[in-house]
Amino acid sequence: MTVLPTTLPDWLAHCERLHPKTIDMGLDRVREVLGRLNGGQGLALPCPLITVGGTNGKGSTCAMLEAIYQQAGYRTAVYGSPHLVHFEERARWLGATIDAAALLPAFQAVEAARRGGEGQPDVALTYFEFTTLAIVLALVELRPDVLVLEVGMGGRLDAVNAFEPDCSVITSIDLDHMAYLGPDREAIGYEKAGIMRTGRPVVVSDPVLPQSVLDRALEIGADLWRLGRDFHFAGDKQQWGWTGRQRRYSGLAYPALRGANQLLNASGVLAALEAMHPRLPVSAQAVRTGLALVELPGRFQIVPGQPTLVLDVAHNPHSVAALAENLDAMGFYPTTHAVFGAMADKDLRPMFERINPLVDRWYFTDLPNPRAASAQSLQAIWQGTCTRTDVQSTPWGDPMQALRAAVDAASAADRIVVFGSFFTVGGVLQHGVPKLSSKHLRA
């Protein structure tokens, strides 16, 4: 008789052993197991579902939807990935991380469905597929009023796309995961557009829409909400306003999530709220309060203290460009120190080229993931992009070592930027938010 895992770490280790590949795009396995749940009845969603895809801005969009719907009095459930420190961060109920113990029955149920009954073959789910099914099942059991699911990669063949959304949001379309999604924005746009559904609203907040997205919306008859046509935003240094098909907001405070790019995300959020208004009415006050209170670690997060510490999970050319703009807008710092670690499959050269003018000292770091680039390899690639002779760089064994070195070298007036993979920022946050008031960090 098979002995099942009893703790979340054991279940996660089990999930890692089931499939020979880390990533294996396709929906057949997920749909098969989904259909076996609940004695073959499948998984009925008890509430409206909003699916959020895109290259960058997905996590921020989910957090804003969550915050506003909570202020409107709805019970919210959110699934997002990856996590920064603890796996259970991927599941949020009423704005808080779900308890690990609450996930265990869902893991057991997915395992039973994966194994099937008499005459049914075992299904070899990937880690992402298994955990996605388990988290959604656990959240559905809580009977939320609204469910928000963040797409992991692409859209068309991502496990999240096995669920039928009432509204889809595509935040941005840019170059990332090209080995899986295609070589250009048109190919990637086609994959992102896979989360659209016939007759249902899809909000696209990318201002330069690939033709493939427009073609797919027309082909299936989706209700396309397009930035610049169906909704608009504008602002000055103090406030901003938004206009949709029938609703309008003026004099809005900027979202609590920092960065100019957050207006694009917030604009898409307001369009999704309007599209869902007949089923989930939201007041203007809930919008204002939700945007003012929204929180999400690692998205241009500025930690109080000296030197200034910025944490950002920018890990592709598009998000690093946004980070560079946001850093530039912060004003003058005598020296900017950068702690950086990334996966080896990322398009690193344009990332370095964009942010090089802002960084005076680099601290490259190894990461605890087999897909990660080594600190030495990151340093070698960076050296091929840097034309300045006054910039120093050193490799380090982990993000916390790199951050300690940056703090030791920095003056109180300097700036330290920790960016790149979720493992980079998570490696700094795993002991709590660093306090930089003192000169030396302690593990």
What does this molecule look like?
This protein folds into 2 domains: 286 residues, Mur-like, catalytic domain (UDP-N-acetylmuramoyl-L-alanine:D-glutamate ligase); 129 residues, Mur ligase, C-terminal domain (Protein-Tyrosine Phosphatase, Chain A, Alpha-Beta Complex). The protein has 15 helices and 17 strands. It has 443 residues and is α/β, with parallel strands linked by helices. The chain has an 8-stranded mixed sheet, with helices on both faces. It has a 6-stranded mixed sheet with strand order 12-13-17-14-15-16. The protein has a 3-stranded antiparallel sheet with strand order 9-10-11, with helices on one face. Helix 2 crosses helix 4 and helix 7 packs parallel to helix 8. A hairpin with a 2-residue loop joins strand 3 and strand 4.
